[in-house]
What we know:
By secondary structure, the chain is α/β, with parallel strands linked by helices. The chain has twelve helices and eight strands. The protein has an eight-stranded parallel barrel, surrounded by five helices.
Amino acid sequence: MRKKIVAGNWKMHHSYHEAVACFATLYEHREEFPAGVEVIVFPPDLYIREFSKKLHLSDHLSVGAQNCFYQTEGAFTGEISPAMLKSVGAKYCIVGHSERRTLFGETDEIVMKKVHSAINVSLSVVLCCGEPLEVREDQSHFAWVERQIKAALFDLDEEQIKKVIIAYEPVWAIGTGKTASVEQAQEMHQFIRTLVAEKFGTDIADSVCILYGGSCNPENAPLLFAAPDVDGGLIGGASLKLSTFLPVIKAARS
Ligand code: PGA
């Protein structure tokens, strides 16, 4: 059985003191996480070390980075390598979030390089994919996501792909309050799983976690997470406060 994952993408929110308080509150409630649910928090990189120092393997709570650079070291002002993230306690790294693709010009090729360099230092990757509104409207969303998945993942080998979690995040649903319907999420997740099966076989496809992201909240999470191919969520706005994040985590109960 696939495990369920609920991941909180804090984006560029919370001062240091707010972040420490928010994480401490979540940590205090970790006993309430449903069995079999893994929770990951993606704070701004500055806070990863502080958070990871608190954690034990048995907590079912980990910390990850929202982005990385694909080079290992060198004259790349302002960038952070996967090895650096790992050295401060990150276990995961989000790659290819739509905000990185649209606001920071990340191409499919850059995303692919980041996936490889993160996996090379044994970080697990949360690979984001998802179509913008105009692509959904002209019905080419399956082809769009297929291109993103193939470009990012199809050069991996069978061991490397096991380090990947996929997050389907339709761009029109991110931060907009609009959510994909359960049917829209399920059909895309099933499609992505089929793509993974065609390349890597059904055993790997059956074990890969595919998260839904885009305006997930305590109201819609129970229905979305109950869909057979939705293995949890990547949560933005609702992950910033315990009062909304904890109910979303509880919604992943299998
Ligand atoms: P949202 O963000 O939940 O605020 O829509 C999700 C994401 O961007 O990962």
